[in-house]
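FORM 7B: Structural annotation worksheet

SECTION A. Query
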Amino acid sequence: MTVSTGRRTPRADCTAGPGGGITFDLDLGRREDEEAPELLLRLRGAKGKGDGDTVRLQLSPLRDGRLRAVLPGTLEPAEGRWDVYLREPGAQDGEAVAVEPGIRDLRLLVDQVPQSGRIAVRIPYPTLDGRLAVRCWLRTPHAEAGPVTFDGHGMTVGGTLYGTGLGAGARVEARAPGADGRVLRVPVTGDGEEGTFAFTLPLDELADGAVTEPRLWTLWLIPGTAEDGPAGGVRISRILDDVWDRKKIFVYPGRSTGEGSRATPCYTTDNDLCVRLEPEPAP
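SECTION B. Predicted structure
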């Protein structure tokens, strides 16, 4: 798309709210009588051109000459990464231009306490190539990971479950990759506060013989009630703050399993808590 002479590359200041809403403010240097463009949020990696792959937000003028679009918290875009574009009036969707990130106010996302079982988190963030995107999560129920501590060969994780309760049969399953992967089950305990849970995973039991290549064990909470949540359990993640990608920020020490391998807690780029099992480095 060709941008008119004198107009800057579109840049948006963002303010994120705890209920999943985001406001986008743009200063495009336009006259008051010009028709306003619209923002497009496109789901990255989506196949085809389905209606659920694009969110359209109308820009409205503010008193200071800027334009504002609002992504309401009640809207439920799919989980994933949504790239932000500006589409000029009369232009086709394919002619929309990428928006750059300006000031991002994420203060209201820190230490969120959801008021319902429906967890909607949206975090505006800068991509590696300098564009604006929004990371979206939509979880019902949700198991929020908390502190991770170590004792010998054990890893203890605390957390809070939203959207359902814990029953007498509550447990955590560590699942190895692959259709025939192993499953390690450990009980879950509460500490007296509603929704809180803790579990200890014996890291030395993850290894079953020689470990020749890295394997990523995923962690799932099974509430142990009649309303266990989604089939297969609730993924243990950490999304209730302003960190859109924890993988390289939350780094934990590894522990030897005693079987020639090393187990290390880690987060994925989707902020899911896992344990990486890999061969023990040579001395």
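SECTION C. Observations
The chain has two domains: 11-139, 142-279. The chain is about 0% helix and 45% strand.

SECTION D. Sign-off
Analyst initials: ____
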